[in-house]
Write a structure and sequence with these properties.
nine-stranded mixed sheet, 421 residues, 25% strand, alpha/beta, TIM Barrel, 21 strands
Length: 421
């Protein structure tokens, strides 16, 4: 469920007409619904009720400060994967003891930053990282709390570029070597082992891969405890999918996911952490774009938008599907026609959809890309010297620009000309 609905033929974001935002900030832009963000966070929180738990929002999905503060005030922790994300979380008012640091390539500087600023735990991905973390912690005279990410060799049955739990993926240590690596960690004075971390991928649309992975984690917990390790926390990652195409079968609900967690891991008495990102932010956002031209081609027509692949790269990168709708509701009985929906960047890859059924549209009309709140604005760029698009947050009948569109002068002045030119 989201809070983007038609009223009297016009698309609204909560109680604000999308066309009103477009008139104020220009197109293209992203708009997020506070009510949807909070609803999706609370679904996860309630799904784990009865377990000691913390829902750590995966910031990589959408790291705007206003989004972070909205979720932090509701009780969310944060999952970060870089020093920049760590500083964003702190700037949003999230205390260090509610921030989990993940990622395969943490640098010494990032580790030091988090140890000095406070951290809930590091999710360690490799033995070399473990050695560096130990050295930095001892240099600072502190002990770093860690989980070790195990790779359970489970096929998440998702897109190859976002699968993370198979043996050929770069993430974590093979679960078969876990006892050896945990023994090594226990010998390092700068580290304190507190748990196990696992994350098998993103946009999962069925629960069975989770069941297989969590059963392996449960078995490993018992083995490590028998070896003398204090396993008190299980970080289960995120990855639950969202329905990008409304005609598709819906992915599992957070309530069903919560039942699975309780069935497979509830008997262990561990604190549970989960790291949802896409399911919290994805359907909470739209990208809104204006039609520049309708072009007739050889055997097909093109809807050319002012939004491009640099603004929303998921279709070009992942062949991702987004529902695209008219901001003005089509009149009853209007027959949709197939059309290619493209952007203005000079690459054939700048294509959002091919032969998509759309109502008749003209230059100046607005369209909205649904399910664009996750991995949209955060993955955007200024390719072709196109300014980053603004982000807008709606709450009830209010809206505010939470990231402004830079001017061309601001973009150009970031460059520095060497004195010899």
């Amino acid at each position: 469920m989201d809070h983007f609905l038609y009223r009297d033929g016009r698309l609204f974001a909560e109680d604000v007409a999308v066309a009103e935002i477009a008139a104020s900030v220009g197109t293209p832009f992203y708009v997020y619904s506070t009510a949807t963000l909070l609803r999706h966070f609370r679904l996860f929180d309630e799904a784990l009720e009865g377990l000691d738990h913390l829902v750590c929002y995966a910031m990589k999905a959408n790291s705007n400060q206003a989004v972070l503060q909205t979720l932090a005030q509701a009780g969310a922790g944060m999952d970060v994967v870089s020093g920049g994300e760590y500083l964003r979380a702190k700037a949003a008012g999230v205390p260090g003891d509610r921030i989990v640091f993940s990622g395969v390539g943490k640098t010494r500087e990032e580790i030091r930053l988090a140890l000095e600023g406070g951290i809930r735990q590091f999710n360690v991905e490799s033995e070399p990282e473990m050695a560096v973390l130990d050295a930095v912690a001892r240099d600072l005279g502190v002990v770093a709390p860690i989980t070790i990410r195990v790779n359970p060799d489970v096929d998440a049955k998702t897109h190859a570029k976002i699968a993370t739990g198979k043996s050929e993926n770069k993430f974590g240590i093979p679960i078969a070597r876990a006892r050896e690596v945990y023994r090594l960690a226990a010998e390092m004075p700068g580290l304190r082992v507190i748990g196990i971390d696992v994350h098998i991928g993103s946009q999962l649309t069925e629960l069975e891969p989770y069941r297989l992975a969590y059963q392996k984690v449960a078995e490993l917990t018992e083995v490590l405890r028998a070896d003398g390790h204090q396993i008190t926390r299980l970080d289960l990652g995120g990855g639950l999918g969202i329905p990008y195409a409304r005609s598709n079968e819906a992915p599992p609900l957070p309530t069903d996911y919560g039942k699975l967690v309780k069935e497979t891991l509830g008997h262990l008495g561990c604190e549970i952490e989960i790291e949802p990102g896409r399911l919290i932010a994805g359907n909470a956002g739209l990208m809104v774009s204006e039609v520049i031209y309708v072009k007739s081609g050889e055997g097909r027509d093109f809807l050319i938008l002012d939004g491009a692949m640099n603004d929303l790269i998921r279709p070009a990168m992942y062949d991702a599907y987004h529902d695209i709708i008219s901001v003005l509701e089509p009149a009853p009985g209007v027959e949709p026609q197939p059309i290619d929906i493209v952007g203005p960047v000079c690459e054939s890859g700048d294509t959002f959809a091919k032969q998509r059924l759309m109502p008749p549209l003209r230059a100046g009309d607005l369209v909205a890309f649904r399910s664009a709140g996750a991995y949209g604005a955060v993955m955007s760029s200024e390719y072709n010297s196109r300014p980053l698009v603004p982000e807008v947050l709606v709450k009830g009948d209010q809206f505010a620009v939470i990231r402004a569109r830079p001017t061309f002068d601001e973009m150009i002045k970031r460059d520095t000309i060497p004195e010899w030119l």
